[in-house]
Amino acid sequence: MTNNITGAKALIESLKKENVEVIFGYPGGAVLPIYDELFDADIRHILVRHEQAAAHAADGYARATGKTGVCFATSGPGGTNLVTGIATAYMDSVPIVAVTGQVPRSLLGVDAFQEADITGITMPITKHNYLIKKAEDIPRVVKEAFYIASTGRPGPVLIDIPKDVTTDLLDFNYPKEVNLRSYKPVVAVNIEQLKQAASLVTASEKPVIYAGGGIIISHAAEELLRFAELIKAPVTATLMGKGAFPDAHPLSVGMPGMHGTKYANYAIQESDLIIAVGARFDDRVTGKLESFAPSAKIIHIDIDPAEIKKNVRVDVPVVGDAKTVLTKLTSLIKQHQPKTSEWIKRVNKWKKDFPLHYKKNDMIKPQYVVESIYELYPDAIIVTEVGQNQMWAEQYFTYTKPRTFISSGGLGTMGYGFPAAIGAKVGRPDATVIDIAGDGSFQMNSQEIATAVQSEIPVVVAILNNGYLGMVHQWQELFFEERYSSTVIEESVDFVKLAEAYNAVGLRAVKPEEVKPTLKEAVESGKPTIIDFIIDKTENVFPMVPAGAAINEIIDLE
Amino acid sequence: MRHTIAALVENRPGVLTKVSGLFSRRRFNIESLAVGVTERPDVSRITIVVAGDSAVLEQVLKQLNKLIDIIHVTELSPKDSVSRELALIKVVVDSRTRSEVMQIVDVFRAKIIDVATDSLIVEVTGDRSKVAAMEQLLSRFGIKELVRTGDIALHRSSITAEDIAHQGDVN
Thiamine pyrophosphate enzyme N-terminal TPP-binding domain location, by residue (chain A) (predicted)? Predict the structure, then answer.
């Protein structure tokens, strides 16, 4: 116990107790006392150039490391600028703790300068949030916030602290444990449900394992591999589940859904059993719900009971942590002799007949850039923006390990990738971190080049530059009679000069043979580097399930 | 289909907003919502009547359970619980109709709690159908204003907010 310290000091001490090593943030009036304490503290602070980037960087750090990310912002606009980042983390179940300053208690509710009701604003996009009214609550609230953010189904927690609370004095005593009667994230797995699941699994001749981000969160990749190999079922990993199962494994069928592989979608549609683990039957996965997996029974394993039966009918629900459930399920059926050899043959035939493919020409193809990144840096952490770049990054890199593909799946936040890459690199300094970007998305947070340069965070941004807001442009081409409303942004910015203006490295490649040397130069520079890959503008993302169609009604490049 | 849900929640600022916000953003239909203190000062009870099939009910219960400030949520089935609603009805009367209205009030074991020259305020307590019947009977005299509390309900068994708060049981 330390007597008579300020609320600001108590906050920093509490963060140290939570082993926080880095904070992404931006100072301001309401957080002056906190930043004053941070000045002497043994915690790294990365100054971003826009608070949105602080939230995304904390998120990227969390996804790359598995730890809880932390971001700071001031009251009012500082907090509202965090909102997109918090919502992104919420949709993808990422543990972050956001601390915002607030106007002094006496000014709450009077529309004071830089006042915004940030707990009200973030209520639907946080797992929980707090407005601290008394300095002595700070240690308990921080303890609870980290606990809530990182346990059960993880998610963002926001702590709003009025300025005068940070200057009030308290006796500091960090609680040893959390005492929340209303939050019990650990649930015992129901053995009856497990047995039912086991009997469906052993009876199935055409099973498909549908693996989501829950596998990665729960560190269950090994258990998934063992389970899949035992029951000999094809595995389709979602965008959030990339890296949960090795792409190159013979049982892998790639991603399901809108831009999934044909063979994953065909397998789902013909299967007699879907085993969903840590996935939530998002509309981008299921397509038209009424036509989804028409002959399949469904086992849904998820830690969040509210996900079960939210979108699809479920035959056997199993509430629990993916790792625990897969371990128990595997041991229940370990004598099992799978009857799936015909099925695997059929799936393999689809894999052979309908591979991902594109046509080469004398221009740089975006898919080739992604393949080249894999050839040169197979162990890299790939971060993406949102749109065509994201889908190509998913399709043409071979992921083998969890936490190597970082992307905004649920919210689909353009501008996420670059700051998230900065966060990932801070958390995993030994890894090569490459943000695969589009020219549109990158411009949403390009100011963060300054952050990367000032804090010496050598991430590489590979811009797949087609001069379009590509994914929307693609939809306009296919479904809006080529009426390209506000999606053409050609020659609006010189990315090489932009990088150089920030004292980062700017490179450009226009021919296919320049791709690999440019990538090498970027990574070997050891500095934040922006590469402008001028790609074939006619290239689109295929295959593709049109909105509202069943997932086997999938169109492809002829 | 109508369901009555009882939620024991932490008695803290913002909890009601969290509950009502959840209902609106997830497109659940609230028919009525009543909130008040319990025998424990740190626990409030929210009684919510929702419309929807059993799948909707299941989602409502699960989503409510996810809110950190919610201690316990349960459906109160009509069989295992009692529910009451209170309504205040301001009825138009004149010297000719006043006694007839008072007779109806008597039959319903309701009360007249305010008398003015041209109106009466009737207090009626009962289940939803009783309140509705009363409203219908009085409507031909002319209802000037009406307010209903929405249902409040309790399980017939002996479980109390105290027990649940001590257990810290959530599911």
Answer: 6-119
